[in-house]
Amino acid sequence: MNINQRKIGSMLSYAQIGISILLSILYTPLLIRLLGSSEHGLYNTVASTISMMSILSLGFGSGYIRYYSKYKKQNDEDSIYKLNGLFLTIFSVIGIVALLCGLFLSFNLKLVFDSGLTRAEYSIARTLMLILTVNLAISFPMSVFGNIISAHEKFVWQKLIGIGKTVFGPLSNMVLLLLGYRSVAIVTASVIISLIVDVIYLFIVLKLLGQKFRFGIPEKGMFAGLVSYTVFIALNIVVDQINSNVDKVLIARYKGATAVSVYSVGYSLSHYYHLFSTSVSGVFFPLIHKMVNNFRDDTAKLREALTNLFVRVGRIQFQILALLCTGVIFFGKPFIHYWAGSGYDDSYYIALILIIPYTVPYIQNLGVEIQRAENNHRFRSIIYTVMAVINFALSIYLCQLYGAIGSAIGTGISIVIANGIIMNIFYHKKCYIDIILFWKNILRISLGLILPCAFGIILNLTLDLYNIVLLFVGIAAYTAVYALSMWFFAMNDYEKDLIRRPLKKILSLFRRRHS
């Protein structure tokens, strides 16, 4: 049952991402053109500022699955209910802290923007920040219900609800924009949809899963163990927020809201690239914890099990991400021209600077959860913290010299050093993962890139890709060549079966209906 949940959950994840990207292609140009580049940049900066307060979660969410797996193996239902109560209490307190922090920032905006905004922009920014602060404060305790659903491996429910949110969010925003409303109305609508999703999660946990919440004194040593486990995860969250959001805040401070808009267009392509990488790996997190618990006393079996999973998922992620990465390289510039409009040429270079370095951690993102399951994530946290400080310093310096592109370069350099070099050595030495075997597999797959890359160069030399018809013809042709090349030169039997089996089922159903 859980295997089917993972498979269907993975397919629904890709469906959600595909729908999200399709709607974004329609929604983002409308957002930029109707809000204007200045308000669009302001909207993104405020969202990034509030998003950075997610560091207040301190990594506790990851601790839930760890302890749930332990108690589930022991069939200790009472401890699970106490765990539910403890986490709801912790995240409610965090929600109150987030509310107070957000209110403070809302009425002290110069701490974020310095003097880079007009009086009207300050007024809009304050309203946006107040609305998003309330949403963030509520989202912390409500996130517990999402963790519970994940721990029960009910991925189909989560993904179907996620698809609904993905569809209704942008569609409602497009309607509001066309009716003449602006950023405040858009943020309000998004918050309402998030609250509806939270209520649905609450219903699933209480009624469908029959979970209970018992409050009181936790098991002796549990809270201390939880803090010990999550403190380094918290450092990771801080680092992720610096890498993801601090650039926009720095650009707003030194170069203004319009420059943030340019950066945001490039960053949005990088963000969707990230979503494709996590859609598959996320459904394996409970399985990783089970593996570590089951093979904790047999390191040879643990190394074999983790390596096989790491390689299998990494191969699939690389084949998907390589298509997207090379697609941006060959078609990104004309695509951004049509998508965002004139004045966004730098967004193409920002996208590449962010996407290419992030490819390594994205095809290895199972490694993050493996470290957590092994309680072996301290080193990563320390290295990432050091690199985040370097990234922050580089971004401040380069932003003032080169604007949005400079900020992206600072982030790209830190990712190459931390993820591309240091963490691969750590995975191999300390995390029971044969990283040499992993990279041998990736190099074999890379042979399948030769033909499509040559084809992409020819398309750029022979076609005017700024003609929108030729652009989409070129993208379709490149995708077809890429798929064929991967099938014949890169994919193994397991990966081919992932495509063949669904197709056989569809053909079988088609024949039955017409027989």
Description:
The protein is mainly alpha-helical. It has a domain at 1-219. It is 85% helix and 0% strand. It has 19 helices and no strands. It has helices at residues 2-51, 60-73, 77-106, 110-113, 119-151, 155-178, 183-208, 222-255, 257-281, 285-294, 299-340, 345-363, 366-373, 378-402, 404-430, 435-446, 450-462, 468-489, 493-513. Helix 8 (222-255) runs antiparallel to helix 9, helix 9 (257-281) runs parallel beside helix 12 and helix 11 (299-340) packs across helix 16 (435-446). The longest helix has 50 residues, at 2-51. The chain is globular, with a radius of gyration of 23 Å. The model has no long low-confidence stretch (mean pLDDT 85).
Q: What is the average per-residue confidence, as pLDDT, rounded to a whole number?
A: 85
Return residue spans where pLDDT drops below 50 for at least 5 consecutive residues: none
The shape is globular
User: Percent of residues in beta strands?
Assistant: under 5%
